[in-house]
Specification:
It is a single chain. The chain is mainly α. It has a single domain, classed as dinb family like domain (Four Helix Bundle (Hemerythrin (Met), subunit A)). Helices cover about 65% and strands about 10% of the residues. It contains six helices and two strands. It has a two-stranded antiparallel ribbon with strand order 1-2. A hairpin with a 2-residue loop joins strand 1 and strand 2. The longest helix has 25 residues.
Amino acid sequence: MREILQDLFAHGAWADAEHWRALDGQPGALADRAACERLHHIHLVQRAFLALARAEAPRITNLSDYPTMAALKEAVISTHQQMASLLTAIAPERLGEVIQVPWFKDPPCHITVAQALHQAAMHSHYHRGQNATRLRELGGKPPLTDLIVWHWKGRPAPVWA
């Protein structure tokens, strides 16, 4: 399972970088509230599930907690680096441990760490699709970031600038 998660998050880092560059290249896109809120939400979810995998309490932020979109982007890059490190070092037994997802209260949600990380990867992909649609609405051309495209291109590393 670790190898699958490593692939999903390596793809996710690349896909996030592709989207950030595309949005940055479209005039006004990184000032568009809907796109920016989703960029923050993707990061928030990734960071929250990273915290849960580390047995830490997630820290919930708002977009307004970042003074600029460049500051949010730096936090996104850091989270991707931390996730890659976690997935390299995490014990296989930890992936099978059951955790409680704190934002589901009634009834509580108990899933394994592997399932939680899988959720974070899939949730991010969902919101990237929404931002791709928003980028097109703003006159831009969304990048093609399907998992199979990442494999086809030789599993490239993210290019953030």
